[in-house]
Amino acid sequence: MASTSDIRNGLCIEHNHDIFKIVEFQHVKPGKGAAFVRTKLKSLTTGRVLDNTFPAGHKIKEVRVRNYKYQYLYNDDMGYHFMNNETYEQTQIDGKMIDRADLLQEGVEVTILFHDEKNIPLTLDLPPSIVMEITYTEPGVKGDTATNTMKPATVETGAEVRVPLFVNIGDKIRVDTTKGTYMERIKDK
Predict the structure, then answer these.
(1) Are residues 179 and 151 in the same domain?
(2) In this structure, is the dihedral angle defined by the CA atoms of residues 96, 97, 103 and 104, taken in order, positive or negative?
(3) What is the pLDDT of residues 121-140, one digit of tens each?
(4) Terminus of the chain with fewer CB atoms < 10 Å: N or C?
(5) How many domains does the chain have?
(6) Which of 86, 102, 125 is the last residue in one of the domains?
(7) How far is CA 144 from CA 57, 133, 168, 170, in A?
(8) Domain boundary residue among 125, 144, 176?
(9) Which distant-in-sequence residues (6+ apart) come within 8 Å of 119 by Cβ?
(10) Are residues 37 and 17 in the same domain?
(11) Residue 144 above 70 pLDDT?
(12) pLDDT score of 141
């Protein structure tokens, strides 16, 4: 059993019969009254984020978790399939557990967080950015760089990303996987 003094970002705890990851926390010691810890918790089963306040010294049940590197293989009607890079063991994950699953490319290395005792996957984190090729977009016109106007473009995985007007079919772009947004165009060398 841990207490509120052990709270830190990324800590996984059991709370209200669910497993939560601490996204943010703040120790508060008001002038009057007892100290408390204000937290923002993300449910690892539903993805829901909630605010919760713990009184100082409150006991919390810490959940032991481990991160493993996996490589994305493919998806089918059973889910998304991944292979452990060290043991070559395969696991499948339901698409609802993956944020921005439409950006998953074959061979991309992801980090999967497992419950240590039950050995079940809790969350999947994509790399911060992925380089993708544009498969379809309206043609750009020379000189369309002065404004911040964006147009829709389809990337190789079928996901739609808004890109600047100067990006064309066949261009490679870097996509932010947390927001699913365009970051930059990759220049050919």
Answers:
(1) yes
(2) negative
(3) 888 888 999 999 999 998 86
(4) C
(5) 3
(6) 125
(7) 59, 20, 12, 18
(8) 125
(9) none
(10) yes
(11) no
(12) 65
Q: Which domain holds residue 42?
A: 2-62
pLDDT of residue 99: 81
The CATH number for 98's domain is: 2.40.50.140
Q: What is the DSSP letter of 96?
A: G
Strand residue runs (E) in the chain: 2-3, 12-15, 18-28, 36-43, 49-55, 59-62, 65-76, 79-84, 90-93, 109-115, 121-125, 129-137, 150-155, 160-164, 172-176, 181-186
Tokens of 172: 């490679």
| Domain co-membership, 116 together with 156 | no
Q: Is 23 left (phi over 0), alpha (psi -120 to 50) or beta?
A: alpha
**135 and 116: one domain?**
no
Neighbours of 21 (CB within 10 A): 20
Confidence of residue 176 (pLDDT cuts 50, 70, 90): very high
